[in-house]
Amino acid sequence: MAPETAPGPRVEVRGASKTYPDGTEALAPLDLVLESGRTTALVGPSGCGKSTLLRMIAGLETVTTGEVRIDGDHPASVAARGELAVAFQDPSLLPWRTVRRNVALARTLAGRRADGAAVDAMISRVGLDGFEDTRPASLSGGMRQRAAIARALVTEPRLLLLDEPFGAVDEITRGDLVSELPPLWRRRGTTTLLVTHSLREAVRIADRVVVLSPRPARIVADIAVPLAHPRTDAMAHDPAFGRLVDTVADALARSRRPAPEAGARP
């Protein structure tokens, strides 16, 4: 399916590492390219640096060494133009604004024209019909997360960064969102990075799955997902789907094994 708009940017991470002032090494120097208009999933052990890498691409974390470029530009410049959006595990909705006004504010901050119909349509897509005028305190955690996803998508970003976006929603809603939302950003040609702990979700959504090692994160596998789109519920029962999930799981398991000592017998 051809994108409805110009495809998203190419993201290049070159020799980028992150060491915090206390000496904690979150990321070893690594290279990663996110191809224009494609969806990449990042998986790895808890605390390995997946979110740190995402935040570096978003311009929210500085790199210690190396660089991150988005179509050759600095992430902060791309963010300032309203061309990237991030949905974090923590929804961080403004408590004094309704769902509709939280989502609409994202368009304003991104420099997009006011469009009440687009705002309400996105709220509906994430399953919050009837809660447009509700404030966050009256929503469940999963509902707040859905509002945060709507807020990210309503800006029609060229680069979409998702950090465990479906982690707080119930299983049925999670399945609905995984089915309904990826076609939206694929149609727009959005370049997308998804951080997830769910290997099945990674294979269901992404064009490739990048597996990271325990901290400091290194790339230990880069696995193509050559499954046709749209990815339906039925596809998740296909043997080819299961084999890909097993491939990702095997790579993740290998990443956790300590490297053999020098001179040790295999």
How would the blueprint of this fold be written?
Layout: E1 11-19, E2 25-34, E3 39-43, H1 50-58, E4 65-70, H2 75-80, E5 84-87, H3 99-109, H4 116-125, H5 141-153, E6 159-163, H6 171-180, H7 182-187, E7 191-195, H8 199-205, E8 208-212, E9 219-224, H9 239-256
Parallel strand pairs: 3-7, 3-8, 5-6, 6-7
Antiparallel strand pairs: 1-2, 1-4, 8-9
Give an overview in words.
The chain starts with 10 loop residues before the first strand and ends in a 10-residue tail after the last helix. It has 266 residues and is α/β, with parallel strands linked by helices. The strands form 2 sheets. Strands 5-6-7-3-8-9 form a 6-stranded mixed sheet, with helices on both faces. The chain has helices at residues 50-58, 75-80, 99-109, 116-125, 141-153, 171-180, 182-187, 199-205, 239-256, and strands spanning 11-19, 25-34, 39-43, 65-70, 84-87, 159-163, 191-195, 208-212, 219-224. The model has no long low-confidence stretch (mean pLDDT 89).
Supply database-style keywords.
three-stranded antiparallel β-sheet, 9 strands, alpha/beta, single chain, Rossmann fold, 266 residues, 2 domains
CATH superfamily of the largest domain, by name, is P-loop containing nucleotide triphosphate hydrolases
Number of domains: 2
How many E strands? Answer: 9
Cross-sheet strand order for the largest sheet: 5-6-7-3-8-9
Q: How many angstroms does the end-to-end distance come to? A: 48 Å
For the record, the CATH architecture of the largest domain stands as 3-Layer(aba) Sandwich
**What share of residues are in beta strands?**
15-25%
Task: Please identify the oligomeric state.
Answer: single chain
Tertiary shape: globular
Radius of gyration of CA atoms, rounded to a whole number: 19 Å
Largest sheet: 6 strands, mixed
**Poorly predicted sequence stretches spanning 5 or more consecutive residues:** none
